[in-house]
Amino acid sequence: MTATAKQSSTKRHLLLASDRSDHSSELASILRSVGDVDVLPTDAIPDRPDGRFSGVVVDINLRSPQSVQRVRNKLRNEAYNGVPRLFVLAEALHHASMQAWALGATDTIARPFDPEDVLQRIRAAFPDSEIYDATDRGKMLNAGVAAAHEVMVRIFERLPTGEALTLNDVIAAEKKILKAIRHCSLREWLTAVGCHHVDTYRHCLYVTGFAVAFAQHLGMREDDQRRLVRAALLHDVGKAFIARDILDKQGKLTAEEIAELRQHPVRGQQALMQQGGFPLEMLDVALHHHEFLDGSGYPHGLRGERISDIVRLITIVDVYSALVEKRAYRLPFSRDRAFAIMESMGAKLDQQLLQAFRPVAMGTA
User: Fold this and answer.
1) N or C: which end of the chain has fewer CB atoms below 10 A?
2) Residues 12/36, Cβ–Cβ less than 8 Å
């Protein structure tokens, strides 16, 4: 194959589906700098992409039930499973963002357009290949899980021996993790990491998967999704300094063992501070992810506004992950039961944020 032919075969081919023909010309012009673009009205979206498109960009009035239904009817076809889709938000409203993610958005962009930001998101969301098949998805999933596993090894096996852990070690993994969960699915991620034989690793990887899926469901920007990956991967770093016979105990812990386990948030923050270079919010998550809004958590019994937004989010996915995982002393709770338990926790958790998490928890996001 010649260099020219190879370049042609890997160029992005995007479908811009629009019911805003008078407004989409600017976006089409931006998109053409990174690939070929077919601009079609929403009722002309092909029933089957047949491997033609690297991704779909949807520019519709998300307040219009007719427009939303047309797009839903087209993209719900199994032939579009795995094809990334980016939605344009005309206004920074919660309703529009939730509607986009309900339609399976991979990412969102908002007017007015910043061309550089749009292109960055296109490159991150859509592969450079016209064909986006199950083999590619499998490779991305495996690469993401392997990258996350390597961070776990650095935390739980190497850090206690004195080997340095740096922010760059985490950053090196985050892009692969985001790509795996974005282009595959949360369910596939959980299935892959659920086979891990080390309970502590498995829990951290579950939390990471739920955190990323939640961030993407909320329409968070790429930078904020990266922050969530880092926080989730490192939230239990302190468990690296808890005795393995406590972490791996096949049965309920004694009061003394529980007291020892509860030292992990403080030890985690201390470890990251000693390593140096970690943002304050990551230290905050490591130290406070077991705090509850009513002051009943640990280690400091923080209340209300003293608990940051990122800690509130990680706490929710941490609690949920623990409930749906199999433990030595109990079977996993069903998704419905786990969510009901968290609702019953009332003022301990940010209930508004918990309800926003419901579609992710129930697998309907």
Assistant:
1) N
2) yes
For 203-257, how does the pLDDT look when each residue is reduced to its tens digit (9 = 90+)? 999 999 999 999 888 878 888 889 999 999 999 999 999 998 998 888 889 999 9
CA distance 168 to 263: 26
107, β-bridge pairs:
86
100 φ, ψ to 5°?
-60, -45
Residue 185 is predicted with a pLDDT of: 81
User: Which residues of the chain have a pLDDT value below 50?
Assistant: 1-10, 129-132
The SS3 assignment for 91 reads coil
Q: Give the per-residue pLDDT at 49.
A: 81
Pairing of strands 55-59, 12-18: parallel
Nearest in space to 210 (alpha carbons), one of 335, 97, 340, 76: 335
CATH architecture assigned to 8-125: 3-Layer(aba) Sandwich (3.40)
Q: How far, in Å, CA of 179 to CA of 188, rounded?
A: 13
Fold match flag (8-125 vs 134-361)? no
**Which stretches within the chain are classed as H helix?**
3-9, 24-31, 65-75, 94-102, 115-125, 134-153, 167-183, 186-193, 199-217, 222-234, 244-247, 255-261, 264-275, 280-288, 309-324, 335-344, 351-361
Q: Which of 49, 22, 52, 20 is nearest to 35 (CA)?
A: 52
Bridge partners, residue 16, by sequence: 39, 57
Predicted TM-score (pTM) of this structure: 0.67
What pLDDT score does 277 carry? 94
Compute the C-alpha angle 321/325/326, nearest 5°: 165
Whether cis (ω within 30° of 0) applies to the bond prior to 112 is yes
Domain boundaries, the chain: 8-125, 134-361
For the sheet containing 85-89, what is the strand order?
Answer: 35-41, 12-18, 55-59, 85-89, 107-110
Alpha carbons 335 and 124: distance in angstroms, whole number: 31
Q: Does the structural domain 134-361 have CATH classification 1.10.3210.10?
A: yes
